[in-house]
Amino acid sequence: MPHRFPLTVFYEDTDMAGVVYYANYLRYIERARSTIVEDLGLDQLEMRNRGIVFVVTRVEADYISPARMGDRLEVVTTHQAASPVRWTFDQEVQRGGQLLFRAHVVAVTMTTQGKPMRLPAEIRAAIPK
Question: What is the DSSP letter of 118?
């Protein structure tokens, strides 16, 4: 079942042409992923205190159509534990069902010292298979 994250485009999100600045789509999908983590009952601050952080290792993005100030958007995300170390996300930014942006994102867990680690069992259990 896809996760849905609504948002509104504000003036600060736009560039000189009045459209959403390209890098802001990455912020939008990051917010959606953070909400998913929270919805799964995972506390990122508590994880960090235990020395565990999520790190994005890959993003493939396609910009399809522009969004503008005032647009009401929705980030639609499907995700899965792709392996014992990878959490993958397919994310779309839509306006009224129209696809504007899509990305495939790969995240892993690392220690706060930057060493890769397997996804802890409680995280793997929370992520859809």
Answer: P
Tokens of 109: 């867990």
pLDDT in tens, 95-109: 999 999 999 999 999
For position 125, what pLDDT does the model report?
86
What CA–CA distance (Å, rounded) separates 71 from 111? 38
DSSP 3-state assignment of 129? coil
Q: How far is residue 55's CA from residue 97's CA, in Å, rounded to a whole number?
A: 29
The dihedral built from the CA positions of residue 5, 9, 14 and 19, taken in this order, carries a sign that is positive
Instruction: Dump pLDDT digits (tens) for 23-80.
Output: 999 999 999 999 999 999 999 999 999 999 999 999 999 999 999 999 999 999 999 9
User: Which of the following is catalytic: 15, 39, 43, 62?
Assistant: 15
Q: Write the DSSP assignment of 58-87 as a string of letters.
A: EEEEEE-S--BTT-EEEEEEEEEE-SSSEE
**Residue 116 · residue 68 · CB < 8 Å:** no
- 15 has catalytic annotation: yes
